[in-house]
Specification:
Layout (H helix, E strand, L loop, with lengths): L3 H14 L3 H12 L4 H8 L5 H29 L24 H15 L3 E2 L5 E3 H4 L18 E3 L8 E3 L5 H9 L4 E10 L11 E11 L4 H15 L5 E8 L4 E11 L5 E9 L1 H6 L8 E8 H9 L12 H4 L3
Parallel strand pairs: 1-5
Antiparallel strand pairs: 2-4, 3-4, 5-6, 6-10, 7-8, 8-9, 9-10
This protein binds adenosine-5'-[phenylalaninyl-phosphate].
The site of adenosine-5'-[phenylalaninyl-phosphate] (FA5) has 24 residues, from strand 6, strand 9, strand 10 and helix 10.
């Protein structure tokens, strides 16, 4: 009869010379298969004394595990082979995790939807802007003190070329659009903005705004108030949020307002600047200011989401922290 020592010796020896997957499989069947040598030894244990059964049994089982391990390793070494024999099709697969939109993208989509339903068009503009569109055309000449409110990232200019910058607001698209379209129209312009300023809970160097612009023969501030209140009503559906309008100044509007919001008696958060489009802005876009009037506004998208979803710090949007992102 075969002894366990004999089996071990010859199994390891054959394992060393085996050349391919078929040979390896034959070896596995020979030693570990149901009718294999080792199984024979294990079967014969029942005829032995208890003591012998224990020592021999434990040795045989250890050998069995070890040989199986070596065979598995060798299979890996030989590669997938025909690609079939080593695959267990009954094994449960890995569930691929599905991506979804970031809260800010979702918020932007919601804004687009609401304004589309009010017959606004959605327009986009470049993030890398010229000084003309970002400032001069918006009644912000170089010497104007309000330029300081838009702490700007300037781009190294090409020799003799116009000064370029990362747009600090979406307002330049007002001019770009009016240069190519005649009133009446109403648009929103969602997009990314950049400001070189210290970050805190409500300010970041990279953030999103959406501009609103509605121009016609008799578009007025009451129309603005109606549109914005309708938007808030839809956006904050069912939530108890308050808004307040207060006078403010932007060189490209006259008169100018700012709108703040708060949730249930919390702190007021500034949401947007707005006002009636300044005649100088119409002139820069080659309109006759005696023909048209309209309102414009620029609203912070993070700020809207902060109020709606009660997010205490704007920097959370950009932290990449999955514990935050996965909540929405
Ligand atoms: C402007 O940018 C004007 N262009 C808005 C405007 C448009 C006025 C049209 C009149 C007519 P302001 O700097 O206040 O204004 O920014 C508007 C909104 O953008 C703010 O109320 C705020 O919600 C958001 N915002 C501004 N700076 C930041 C920042 N650093 N981080 C996050 N949100 C910001």
């Amino acid at each position: 009869m075969l002894t366990i020592e004999g089996i071990e010796k010859s199994a390891y020896k054959e394992l060393e010379t085996v050349k391919d997957r078929d040979g390896l499989e034959a070896l596995r069947v020979k030693y570990l298969g149901r009718k294999g040598d080792l199984t024979g030894v294990l079967r014969s244990l029942k005829d032995l004394s208890e003591k012998e059964r224990k020592t021999l049994g434990s040795r045989a089982n250890k050998f069995k595990d070890k040989l199986q391990e070596k065979i598995d390793a060798k299979f890996l070494e030989f590669g997938e082979g025909d690609g079939v024999s080593n695959i267990d099709i009954t094994r449960p697969g890995h569930k691929p995790s599905r991506g979804y939109l970031h809260l800010l993208s979702k918020t932007e989509q919601e804004i687009r939807k609401i304004f589309l339903s009010m017959n606004f068009s959605v327009v986009e503009g470049p993030e890398l802007e010229t000084e003309f569109y970002a400032f001069n055309a918006l009644n912000l000449p170089e010497w104007h003190p309000a330029r300081e409110a838009w702490d700007t990232f300037w781009i190294k200019p090409k020799k003799g070329g116009e000064r370029m910058l990362l747009r600090p607001h979406t307002s330049p698209v007002q001019i770009r659009y009016m240069e190519e379209h005649q009133p009446p129209f109403q648009i929103i312009v969602p997009g990314r903005c950049f400001r070189y300023e210290a970050t805190d809970a409500t300010h970041d160097t990279n953030f999103y705004q959406f501009e609103g612009l509605m121009v016609g023969r008799d578009v007025n501030l009451a129309n603005f108030k109606y549109i914005v209140e309708k938007f808030f009503e839809e956006f904050f559906k069912g939530q108890k949020v308050e808004a307040r309008f207060r006078p403010s100044h932007f060189p490209f509007v006259e008169p100018g307002v700012e709108v703040d919001m708060r949730f249930k008696g919390g702190d007021w958060l500034e949401m947007m600047g707005a006002g009636m489009v300044h005649p100088k802005v119409f002139e820069a876009a080659h309109y006759d200011p005696r023909d048209f009037q309209g309102f414009a506004f620029g609203m912070g998208i993070e700020r809207l989401a902060m109020i709606k979803y009660k997010i205490p710090d704007i920097r959370m949007f950009y932290s990449g922290d999955l514990r935050f992102i996965k909540q929405f």
